């Protein structure tokens, strides 16, 4: 009985071809499984604050869009700061990013109301004593690809980092429970495919 050492090489070949690892890059129409976006973050009033947010969309094993989110900042006050995707891609002034991204028939973008149930709600970034912080999280509440939850809707979307911690509003609508005033903002922009290298 030598069943198990029969064709490991063939199995590898089949796996490789199923993953579309063709050297020609001849893409099928649905070869857009991974999309990326970026936001360059700047302080709303404090020029010392800067950072970057990266979003990478992929399909889960069951075909649901999942976005990996990474946010990096420097120049911020130490401690936790709320981070959300807000509903308009405008940062000057930060207030023009409007409320929390929450499309759909039952939309309620009020930052403190309906929190943390907006589609754009994320988690706090923890800023260290030296003013730098990195936050990584994952969401399936929004997409980069077209559709009803796409951050690239008519008016775009923006990251907002708040002055204070997101408490996730356990007591309902309490002013500032979602992080209060706005410290920094970055407009979300689509990134071209990795393959473009001019
Ligand atoms: Cu916010």
Low-confidence stretches: 1-31
State mean pLDDT (0 to 100 scale): 86
In the CATH scheme, the class would be Mainly Beta
Instruction: Provide the β-strand percentage band.
Output: 25-35%
Strands of the widest sheet, in order across it, are 5-8-9-1-2-3-7
Assign a percent range to the helix content. Answer: under 10%
| Class derived from helix and strand content | mainly beta
Helix-strand pattern, N to C? HEEEEEEEEE
- Radius of gyration (CA) equals 20 Å
Cofactors, ions and other ligands in the entry? copper (II) ion
Enter the CATH topology name: Immunoglobulin-like
Name the CATH superfamily assignment: Superoxide dismutase, copper/zinc binding domain
Protein architecture, described:
The chain has 198 residues and is mainly beta. The chain has one domain: Superoxide dismutase, copper/zinc binding domain (Immunoglobulin-like), CATH 2.60.40. It has 1 helix and 9 strands. The chain has one helix at residues 8-18; strands at 35-43, 50-59, 65-74, 79-81, 83-86, 125-127, 133-139, 158-162, 182-191. A 7-stranded antiparallel beta sheet has the order 5-8-9-1-2-3-7, with no helix packed on it. A hairpin with a 5-residue loop joins strand 2 and strand 3 (65-74). It is globular. The relative contact order is 0.22. Bound molecules: copper (II) ion (CU). Copper (II) ion binds at residues 82, 84, 86, 100, 111, 160, 162, 178-179.
